[in-house]
Amino acid sequence: MGLLDSFEQGLERAVNRAFAKTFRSGIQPVEIASALRRELDTKAAVVARDRILVPNELVVRLSPADEERMRSLGGALITELDTMLRGHASAQGYSLAGPLRIALRADESITTGTVDVDSSTAEGRVEWRAVVDVGGRRYPLSKARTILGRGSDADITVDDPGTSRAHVEILWDGERAMVRDLGSTNGSKLDGRPVTQSGLNDGQTVTIGRTDIVFHVVPLAAPQTRPSRDDRTTSTRIMPQNGDWS
């Protein structure tokens, strides 16, 4: 974060509090939503190409009066905030470090009409799972070798007459992935280019027949321990593009 960013955030907080002293009508849910989005944007950390990690534990601190008003809305408010924040993370290409948790807390130091957000990443190593999106469904790659094709004996059956019974396989060792064409009749493509064998990175698209298979690496839930106020990230390696696993 640069000095200008820090200054602008300090100015925003000062203006927010100044207006709160003049207009004591209390905080609105839309202002909480805006503060949560801003917190993700501020704390987003690039840990690998095409992977941006953001906190998954967020505590919204409100004045006691505002917290009581928000609590009177029941669980619907947290549900709406959760849906909104997940949508924002998805739109921005963010990866949550674990299960998303949003909590509201009363804080005597917070002025009526203002909101502060504390965020953290669940302690422990972030583990990653490989998945593919096919035809609007998401399939986890739970094995080291997953075969996709038209055949009923494929691990993931693709209902596309342009595919072979065993068309491609995706290899996943927990850190790196590779796609390999299995001698299919019509061939395979990776991001629109013919491919026989290649390393596979998060967000790349394998096309067989007329079907797109989008590969993703997503975070698994980390073991839940006491959250830390220090943001933690984990690094990950980029998948090889030339099929070299060494």
Low-confidence stretches: 1-8, 18-23, 222-246
CATH architecture of the largest domain: 2-Layer Sandwich
Indicate the radius of gyration in whole angstroms.
Answer: 23 Å
N- to C-terminal distance: 36 Å
Order of strands in the sheet with the most strands?
8-7-17-16-13-14
* Percent of sequence in beta strands: 25-35%
Report mean pLDDT, rounded to a whole number. 80
Q: Write down the domain tally.
A: 2
Organism: Microbacterium paludicola
Region (Disordered): 184-203, 222-246
Domain FHA: 146-195
Pfam family, one: FhaA_N
Topology:
Elements: H1 3-22, H2 29-43, E1 45-48, E2 51-54, E3 57-62, H3 64-71, H4 75-92, E4 94-96, E5 101-106, E6 116-120, E7 128-134, E8 137-140, E9 145-149, E10 156-157, E11 168-172, E12 177-181, E13 188-190, E14 193-195, E15 197-200, E16 205-208, E17 211-219
Parallel strand pairs: 2-4, 3-5, 9-10
Antiparallel strand pairs: 1-2, 3-6, 7-8, 7-17, 9-11, 11-12, 12-15, 13-14, 13-16, 16-17
Helix pairs in contact: 2-4
Short overview:
The chain has 246 residues and is an alpha+beta fold.
Structure description:
It is a single chain. With 246 residues, the protein is an alpha+beta fold. It folds into two domains: 3-120, FhaA, phosphopeptide-binding domain (DUF3662) (hypothetical protein PF0899 fold), CATH 3.30.2320.60; 126-221, Tumour Suppressor Smad4 (Sandwich), CATH 2.60.200.20. 25% of the residues lie in helices and 32% in strands. It has helices at residues 3-22, 29-43, 64-71, 75-92; strands at residues 45-48, 51-54, 57-62, 94-96, 101-106, 116-120, 128-134, 137-140, 145-149, 156-157, 168-172, 177-181, 188-190, 193-195, 197-200, 205-208, 211-219. Mean pLDDT is 80; it is low at 1-8, 18-23 and 222-246.
